[in-house]
Design goal:
Layout lengths: L1 H16 L15 H9 L2 H17 L3 H21 L7 H18 L5 H21 L8 H27 L3 H20 L3
């Protein structure tokens, strides 16, 4: 436990000392269901954040198993609508990288938050992820199929995280989840600094 706290603290300290860099990169064609579905699974930033949400939900248990991922998906849709309609959200790239750092640190520290607070935390970061997806849609392209794709892929990644978290909890290996969280936080620092 002490090692994970040290790793998470070091990752957060390093993150605060680095200059923001672009954490989100374009993923080619951004129209249609398949492109939308592949977008979240094609970027390390998105995969880490989505799986972390699922792991966090599993850690909290109970109604958090569905409420925390649902909050992320719902507010991601809001962020996507903002991006598709040209409404700016400041510091999107930094918000995406920070989502990986913060959610990784939450896992590394084994924090247990009230479900409403957890929903608010993941929902806040979901807006950045959604905006990045929505803003990449070319003008004049229909966003419905694209949005359905990335929302479904996001839910699937959340489900994978929940599944891994439940299995880890049953095997009494939450230590592995904490170490994974520390690694996620460190990867988030790399994304923020532009090393990854």
């Amino acid at each position: 436990m002490k090692a994970t706290r040290i790793a998470a603290g070091a990752a957060l300290a390093l993150a605060s000392a680095t200059a923001p860099a672009l954490a989100h990169t374009g993923h080619g064609d951004v129209s249609g269901f398949v492109a939308g579905f592949l977008h979240p699974v094609g970027g390390l930033d998105h995969v880490l954040a989505m799986v972390a949400v699922g792991l966090f939900a599993a850690h909290l248990g109970g109604r958090a198993l569905w409420a925390v991922p649902a909050a992320f998906v719902a507010l991601m849709a809001v962020g996507a609508a903002l991006g598709m309609n040209g409404v700016g959200v400041p510091h999107v790239e930094t918000g995406i990288a920070l989502s990986v750092i913060v959610l990784g640190a939450v896992l590394a520290l084994g924090l247990t938050l009230p479900v409403g607070v957890a929903m608010g935390l993941v929902g806040f970061f979901a807006i950045f992820h959604g905006h990045a997806h929505g803003a990449e849609l070319p003008a004049g392209a229909s966003g419905a199929a694209y949005a359905a794709g990335f929302l479904l892929a996001t839910a699937a990644l959340h489900g994978a995280g929940v599944g891994v978290g439940i299995i880890a909890g049953r095997l009494a290996s939450m230590r592995a989840v904490q170490l994974g969280g520390a690694a996620m936080a460190a990867a988030g620092v790399g994304l923020l600094a532009g090393w990854i």
